[in-house]
Every structure is written in C-alpha cells, then in structure tokens.
Amino acid sequence: MLITALTQKIEWLANQSRLFYPMVALYYKNMIKREVKLAELKPGDNVLCIGGGPCPYTAIMLHQLTGASVTVVDNNEECVQQSADLIRRMGLEDAIRIVCGEGEEMDCAGFTVIHLALQVSPKGKVLKNLLARAGNGVKILVRLPKELMNGLYCPLESCPLPCCKCIKHSFFTNVGNTALYIKGGAVW
Ligand SMILES: C[S@@+](CC[C@H](N)C(=O)[O-])C[C@H]1O[C@@H](n2cnc3c(N)ncnc32)[C@H](O)[C@@H]1O
C-alpha cells in the first residue's frame, strides 16, 4: 500500500537522524500513552508488536513507558534489518527483539499483549491467526484509521471478537481509535 511505503520512508529518515527521530516520536507519544492505559500494561507483560517498520516507535515507547519486553515482527526484510540496527544502537536489544515474518503466520503463544500497527494488512487474517493461537486472556490492541482515511488502509471488515473498549486519538494523527479485544474476555 502507498501509505505503508510512505511511512516506511519517513521512519527510515527517523532511523538515520538523531534530529528527526524525536520529531516523528511526537506523532506517537500520546497515542502510545493512551494505549498503555487502555490495556493496563505492566512491566511483566510480554508484548508482540505486529508491523514495526524501520523505526519501531511503538515497541520502543511501550517498553520505555512500562518496562515490558517486546517482540516486533515485520514482513519487510529491509525494515527488520534497519530497526534491529537501531535497537542495537539504542542498547535495547535485551528488551526488544526484532523478527522477520508475516503477522498472519506468527506463533503468538506466550504473549500477553499483542499490538497491530495501523498499516498491518490483511488485518482480518492476522487477527484470525492471533485468536486461534494466542492464550485466553490475551489483550489485542488494534489501531484503526479515521473515517476520512479509511481508503488508505486495509480495513477490518469484521472481527470474530466483540470490542471491549476503545480510545479515541487526537486530531493530528491518521489513527482514529485503538480498539481493545480480549480473548475470552467480557465486554465493557
Ligand atoms: C511503516 S510501519 C509503522 C509502524 C510504526 N513504526 C510503529 O511503531 O507503530 C508498518 C509496518 O507494518 C508492516 N506490515 C504490514 N502488514 C504486515 C503483516 N501482515 N505482517 C507483518 N508486518 C506487516 C509493514 O511492512 C510496515 O513496515
């Protein structure tokens, strides 16, 4: 998708520049703080981020805000190499692991929280795989676009689980909401 390629380019620049990195980080910071609250993330959580790109801000900030360990999976080999290099430069390799693979094939047993980036595609297939393999009680956070931006991203036509809770993001991001699904959980 065009938007994914564009985001990867911007994040590649952020990966390469100490000046640009904190500027792009501003786009994510409050969004990720809200997501931490929504999923009640704790230091003992084992988080899987699907779609990290060349600069895995979500994984980095989730770890920095909570102390949780994070695994990032991306299906673009170049992105995986670039982000693994950034994680090494930041000295975070003990806390953040980067792997190459498809979200729709990932073995997600053992993760307590799973996060889907806005650009993940196909979202329905990825969710189906997660729900089949993840343990009961796993929390799944899914970023969804603003209505106006729907055409730019892969849609989530239906989800086999009811949404538990949802948080709205600011005007200045393409992400409209992050939805929380809990396998085997109650609906709020
Ligand atoms: C550009 S990034 C944006 C994520 C952002 N850096 C973050 O921290 O939230 C989105 C990435 O998702 C990856 N992606 C999309 N669909 C995927 C899938 N089904 N499995 C694995 N990775 C996927 C793309 O390769 C892309 O690099």
- Rounded to an integer in angstroms, the radius of gyration calculated over CA atoms is 15 Å
Oligomer: single chain
Counting structural domains, the number is 1
How far apart, in Å, are the first and last alpha carbons? Answer: 34 Å
- In helices, the fraction of residues equals 25-40%
In CATH, the topology is named Rossmann fold
Ranges where pLDDT stays below 50 over 5 or more residues in a row are: none
CATH domain class name: Alpha Beta
Strand order of the largest sheet: 3-2-1-4-5-7-6
Q: Can you give the mean pLDDT?
A: 93
Looking at the overall shape, the CATH architecture is 3-Layer(aba) Sandwich
Order of helices and strands: HHEHEHEEHEEE
Q: What profile does the largest beta sheet have?
A: 7 strands, mixed
Hetero groups bound? S-adenosylmethionine
Task: State the total count of DSSP E strands.
Answer: 7
The CATH superfamily label reads: Vaccinia Virus protein VP39
Number of helices: 5
General form: globular
Strand content: 15-25%
Helix/strand/pairing class, anyone? alpha/beta
Structure description:
With 188 residues, the chain is of the alpha/beta class. It has a single domain (2-182), classed as Rossmann fold. Helix content is 37%, strand content 21%. It contains five helices and seven strands; from the N terminus they run ααβαβαββαβββ. Strands 3-2-1-4-5-7-6 form a seven-stranded mixed beta sheet, with helices on one face. Helix 2 (20-39) crosses helix 3 (57-66). The protein is globular. S-adenosylmethionine (SAM) binds at residues 4, 7-8, 11, 50-53, 55-58, 73-76, 79, 102-104, 117, 119-121, 126.
